[in-house]
């Protein structure tokens, strides 16, 4: 599989490893938003959260919690974003599912909050019904 994260899992390219279980691996992001930016990936190749089996996702979330706590302590930041991009339009560049752990400090250059839009009358309920129909 010609996937950079699969190559990391197989040990074919190096990573700055932080944590590992049977199902998941965590390492530092090579292009950090802030130093300490880490990733948690499934060892199996799944493209998005939708493709990833629930038991693997549970391990990803548990590892995310553990590494988030460690990154927060190690960097001394007050805030951390956990972010998972699904699909090119969302900003996903590596098509092997991964949770970002992004240490944040006041005034850094990662922009949250985002520009919030509004629902016109009735649109929110219409959207709710659409989503319910797909659950
Ligand atoms: P995304 O835009 O959500 O797909 O994020 C992909 C992330 O993977 C980026 O933050 C990259 O800096 C990171 N990345 C790409 N290649 C490597 C690598 N070899 N080791 C560590 N992180 C990587
Ligand atoms: Zn992969």
The radius of gyration computed from the alpha-carbon positions, rounded to a whole number of angstroms, is 17 Å
Whole-number average pLDDT? 97
Oligomer: single chain
According to CATH, the fold-level topology is: HIT family, subunit A
- The helix fraction, in percent, is 25-40%
CATH homology superfamily: HIT-like
Ions and ligands: adenosine monophosphate, zinc ion
**Annotated CATH architecture:** 2-Layer Sandwich
Question: What is the helix tally?
Answer: 3
End-to-end Cα distance, whole Å, is: 32 Å
SS-based structural class? alpha+beta
Short description:
With 135 residues, the chain is α+β, with helices and mostly antiparallel strands. The chain contains three helices and five strands, in the order H-E-E-E-H-E-E-H.
Report on this structure.
This protein is of the alpha+beta class. It has a single domain (4-134), classed as HIT family, subunit A (2-Layer Sandwich), CATH 3.30.428. The chain has helices at residues 4-9, 54-75, 123-134, and strands at residues 17-20, 24-28, 38-42, 79-83, 99-104. Strand 1 and strand 2 form a beta hairpin. Adenosine monophosphate (AMP) binds next to loops.
């Amino acid at each position: 599989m010609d996937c950079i994260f699969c190559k990391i899992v197989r040990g074919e390219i190096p990573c700055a490893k932080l944590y590992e279980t049977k199902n998941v691996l965590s390492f530092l992001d090579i292009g950090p938003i802030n130093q300490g930016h880490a990733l948690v990936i499934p060892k199996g190749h799944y493209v998005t959260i939708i493709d990833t089996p629930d038991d693997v996702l549970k391990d990803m979330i548990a590892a995310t919690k553990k590494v988030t706590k460690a990154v927060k302590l190690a960097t001394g930041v007050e805030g951390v974003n956990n972010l998972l991009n699904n699909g090119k339009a969302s900003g996903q560049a590596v098509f092997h599912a991964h949770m970002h752990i992004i240490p944040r400090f006041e005034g850094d250059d990662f922009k949250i909050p985002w520009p919030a839009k509004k629902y016109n009358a009735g649109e929110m309920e219409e959207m709710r019904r659409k989503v319910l129909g797909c659950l």
